[in-house]
């Protein structure tokens, strides 16, 4: 699964640690999600979407989706 | 390094149980050497050093349940599966070697020691997987 987490975080000038604190997860979790090494659970994906105030599908997209 | 309250609680629990294990082990070994107990008391005394180790297994299970970070929990579960697979494989192989008279008998509690060694192996696998971008 691809995601725009790094871009969204950079737009707000947040470090990985800042985002981790806001999501109440570890910095290594944020790093793993950003680099595509770990796909978050649905509850965590919703939490991320709520934090950035955008829809989940505007953050996460299927790896097989070309458009 | 991520250290959740759940991990801190686990670390403190393990520290306390490890001290209890050392105390129980030395005490019971000394007891069996000097005044060997008999009957049910002997069984109870012999089991005593095992109880703190059982407590560590329970504490590990509780940590897995309580860890709030799902990514860290996934890494810890993988570490646990590697430890369990390592222990089961090693004891199975050793058991067959022992059955055919090719290896000496080892006490069953060695399984626990192998499981802890497996946890270290699992930790190394996690570090390698994270550093090489595989997890």
| Rg from Cα of chain B | 18 Å
Give a quick account of the main beta sheet of chain A: strands, pairing sense, barrel closure.
2 strands, antiparallel
Q: How many β-strands of chain B, per DSSP?
A: 0
Query: Which regions of chain B are unreliable across 5 or more consecutive residues at pLDDT < 50?
Result: none
Tell me the count of domains of chain A.
Answer: 1
Number of strands of chain A: 2
Instruction: Supply the helix-strand structural class of chain A.
Output: mainly alpha
Structural class of chain B: mainly alpha
- The total of helices of chain B stands at 5
Provide the helix percentage of chain B. over 70%
The value of Rg of chain A in angstroms is: 11 Å
Distance between the termini of chain A: 14 Å
What value does the average pLDDT of chain B take? 95
CATH class type of chain A: Mainly Alpha
SSE topology string of chain B: HHHHH
Shape of chain A: globular
